[in-house]
Specification:
It is a single chain. The chain is mainly α. The protein has a domain of 131 residues: Tetracycline Repressor, domain 2. It is 69% helix and 0% strand. The protein is built from 10 helices and no strands.
Length: 201
């Protein structure tokens, strides 16, 4: 029931924007999504399962945005800048993405275990949601590796990608620093241009 699942996740996200997770009620989430409470429990199993699925969806959405930024047609420096700008804006606009990238979970947010839980769900999407979540260091590695692959191209040898790893990781870490301390005039793009010379990428 993918459409119902997405509607429930949307309703949970909207509820979380209005009140702390501890005050979000399953019955209200189901009503807002226009489905029965039983459908909610069939999809997620529990409020904790809903929280894990919501956090997983936001993590996947962030990584999909990274892929879009890297798929652009610009030169490598512009694509890395797009990744940094996406990271900064996604974390600014989405408290769950910010918590995932920084590891700073407030009392307003659900804090699912990074290690995951044993899942007995019959719903494949929930089994995935119940699995381990990336820690902040994992996001650095994942985004760095995706950037290296995208910039080097599919036919690149390992020797060709070795020089890209450092600049790509630097841009990811720079973007994360902008989440904690937003840059001033010129924004993220100016910072990326200052630390990653064009010839490096």
């Amino acid at each position: 029931m993918p459409a119902a699942r997405e509607s429930l996740l949307d309703a949970a996200y909207t509820a979380l924007a209005r009140r702390p997770w501890s005050a979000v009620r399953m019955v209200d989430v189901a009503a807002a999504a226009g489905v029965s409470r039983q459908t909610l429990y069939n999809e997620f199993g529990s409020k904790e399962g809903l929280a894990r699925a919501l956090v997983r969806r936001e993590a996947d959405g962030y990584l999909a945005g990274v892929e879009r930024a890297l798929a652009g047609s610009g030169e490598p420096g512009a694509r890395l800048t797009a990744v940094a700008e996406w990271t900064s804006s996604a974390a600014r606009d989405n408290a769950l993405v910010r918590a995932l990238l920084t590891g700073c979970w407030t009392e307003r947010l659900p804090a699912p275990p990074l290690a995951g839980v044993a899942s007995s769900s019959a719903v494949p999407a929930q089994r995935r949601a119940d699995g381990p979540l990336p820690a902040p260091r994992d996001f650095v590695r994942i985004v760095r590796d995706r950037a290296v692959s995208a910039l080097a191209g599919p036919a690149a040898a390992a020797a060709d990608t070795a020089g890209l790893s450092g600049p790509c990781e630097l841009v990811v870490r720079l973007a994360l620093s902008c989440v904690a301390a937003p840059p001033g005039e010129g924004g993220v793009a100016e910072l990326v241009r200052a630390v990653v010379p064009r010839q490096t990428v």
